[in-house]
Structure formats: C-alpha cells, structure tokens
Amino acid sequence: MKRLLVFCLMILVTEVPAMFAGGPAEQSSKALAQQASLKEKAELFGPGTQVTARIRGTSSNVDYHGTIDEISGNNMKLKLKDRIMPIEFGQLEALHFRTNSYESKRRPDPVQARRVAIEIGIGEKAKGRRVSERFSGVIRSIGDESFTLNAEDRALSVRFDEVTKLEKDDMPRWAKGAIAGGVAFGLFALMMGIALSGD
C-alpha cells in the first residue's frame, strides 16, 4: 500500500505539470501569439513610455530599464541611459510599464492612468477611484480616452481623465502562497493518513 501511495505521489509531482505544458507546435504558436501581444502592448504604451523589457538570454533572462524611443515593424528601440538598443519583439520575454498602479493626489493624469490600465491588461481585475466614486471589475476594453469594466453585472465606462487611482485587484502573493501551502500540506496529511492506516 505504501509503495502504491509513493508511486501515485511521484506521478502527481512529475507528470501532471508536463501534461499542461503542451507540445512543441502548441508552444511555438503560443510564442508567436506572445510576440504579437508584446508588439501590441508596446504600440499601446507608445514612444516616451518608461518600461522594463525582459529579453530572452542564453543562460538567463535579462531585464533592461529604459524608454520606448521608436516602434517600427517587428522592432522597437529602447533608450537606455547610455545608448539606444534595438530589440526584435521575438527576443522579448516580457514588457512591463515601470509601475502597475497609479494614484494622483491632485489632478488626474490620463496618460499615466491609460498606461497602468494597459499594464493590468484586458481580462484582468482592476480597482480604483474616479473623481466621484470607487470602481472595480474586469477590464473588458481599453480605448484612447476611456476603458470599460465588467462591474457587478453591468458594463462601466471610465474616462481616463477622471481616474485618480487605478491598480490591479489581485490577491497578495503571500496569500496565494499560504493557500498553495495549505493545499499541499492537506494532500500530504491525507496521503500519510492513508499510508499509516493501511499497515
């Protein structure tokens, strides 16, 4: 009984993650889709936006912090402190706005609010405040002047020039870790209980 339990546990740990990884064809189509979405994200951010670009390296990924200088075709130029670096979108692992939250104590800054909405992304939960009210929901679309949320079973359009605060509505990492740890401990305790009761 113990051997069967150990065998099942080993299969669970080693084989189940591999089942969700997909084959080479699926992975290459995901890479092409990611490349297109990173180009689209760069175009939405626009020149003059401070970003962090993660470039695939030979041994590890490398992050570069700079300002988008120019976007053309499948390339962009990133202005670093000491030079301008051309980057192909196929080289990018990730592209992020320098911050994923925005808050204005005085007047709203629509350009910053839009960039944070783009960084949060379509399909992600966001929360914030506009001049007159708080809002939260899933970002459905992002335009030049406003974005739309699915909020409490209705579509809510929020103008960027009204937004005084915007951030991703996400569970903190420590909470996700605690839940994952609790689930792992529960499964381990269950397996041990079964193993010990069999003898």
Q: Please, could you describe this protein's structure?
A:
The chain has a domain at 26-98: SH3 type barrels. 38% of the residues lie in helices and 35% in strands. It has four helices and eleven strands. The strands form two sheets. Strands 6-11-7-8-9-10 form a six-stranded antiparallel sheet, covered by helices on one side. The chain has a five-stranded antiparallel sheet with strand order 4-3-2-1-5. The longest helix is centred in the last third of the chain and has 25 residues, at 173-197.
The major β-sheet equals: 6 strands, antiparallel
Low-pLDDT stretches are: 16-33
Write down the CATH topology of the domain at 26-98. Answer: SH3 type barrels
Biggest sheet, spatial arrangement of strands: 6-11-7-8-9-10
Can you give the mean pLDDT? 78
> What is the molecular shape?
flat
What is the CA-atom radius of gyration, in angstroms? 22 Å
* Count of individual beta strands: 11
Task: Give the topology.
Layout: H1 2-19, H2 24-45, E1 50-55, E2 62-72, E3 75-79, E4 84-88, E5 92-97, E6 101-103, H3 110-120, E7 125-130, E8 134-142, E9 146-151, E10 154-159, E11 163-168, H4 173-197
Antiparallel strand pairs: 1-2, 1-5, 2-3, 3-4, 6-11, 7-8, 7-11, 8-9, 9-10
